[in-house]
Amino acid sequence: MDVLEAMEARQSTRAFKPRNVEQTDIEQLLNSAARAPSGVNSQPWRVAVTRGQTKQRISDALLSARKEGAESNPDYSYYPTVWKDPYKQRRVACGKALYSALGISKEDKTRQLQAWENNYQFFGAPVGLFFFIDRDLNKGSWLDMGMFIQNVMLAAIGHGLATCPQASLAEYPQIVRDILGMDEQYLLICGMALGYADPSQPVNQYRLDRAPQENFTHWFE
Ligand SMILES: Cc1cc2nc3c(=O)[nH]c(=O)nc-3n(C[C@H](O)[C@H](O)[C@H](O)COP(=O)(O)O)c2cc1C
């Protein structure tokens, strides 16, 4: 598969087959992802690969924190506190498309909550990745992390795998760090579900559109 096909094929996958992912596939895709550029080749990425009991402990702990109403305390603000257009409209369209694919009505808050809580189960994926960055690094290294994380998603496609990047998994970073024995020096950027997509599930059968380049590009001669 060429790189343009992989970019086209990537989509956030929210239902996975119970099939295990080979360790060698994970190692290879992480090595490919590490070809990402980074300022002065600083390679700021740090990844935790969770499977089996460790992944389950994280799922259970995050779900309990949510159910107990614990205040989320992410290491950084991913989303704005006040949404304005065009981002606001896109956010609304994103939620509508997801709930419509799942057959959940606007009024059905119970099923909406259940769908959201599926995040903490990695949508049934057998592998949960967590991306960390050293807190002493600057914003530039966060750009590098973004490139690395996108590379992970594209390399996963090269291995026949699917992903969903998940900010939701970074809402309680200390819970994740404690379970992984990760030093507080490392900030949690996001998690990611990794596994084999289940294409029979309606939640994997819709695509969100994108504004075409003429909407966001200015040309100069
Ligand atoms: C850093 C990051 C965090 C995200 N967090 C979540 C999340 O917690 N849960 C979720 O279902 N989707 C999450 N998404 C997926 C976005 O909703 C998705 O990328 C967007 O709607 C576009 O859809 P697509 O990825 O299928 O093209 C996240 C995406 C990114 C890049």
Give a brief outline of the structure.
By secondary structure, the chain is α+β, with helices and mostly antiparallel strands. It is 41% helix and 13% strand. It has a single domain (3-208), classed as NADH Oxidase (3-Layer(aba) Sandwich).
Question: What can you tell me about this protein's structure?
Answer:
The two termini are 35 Å apart. The protein is α+β, with helices and mostly antiparallel strands and 221 residues long. The protein has helices at residues 3-9, 23-33, 52-67, 87-101, 109-117, 139-158, 173-180, 213-216; strands at 46-50, 127-134, 162-166, 186-195. α1 packs across α6, α2 packs across α6 (139-158) and α3 (52-67) packs antiparallel against α7 (173-180). It is globular. 41% of the residues lie in helices and 13% in strands. It has a single domain (3-208), classed as NADH Oxidase (3-Layer(aba) Sandwich), CATH 3.40.109. The longest helix is centred in the last third of the chain and has 20 residues, at 139-158. The protein contains eight helices and four strands. The model has no long low-confidence stretch (mean pLDDT 97). Strands 1-2-4-3 form a four-stranded antiparallel sheet, with helices on both faces. The chain binds flavin mononucleotide. Flavin mononucleotide is lined by residues 11-12, 14, 94, 119, 164-168, 190, 208.
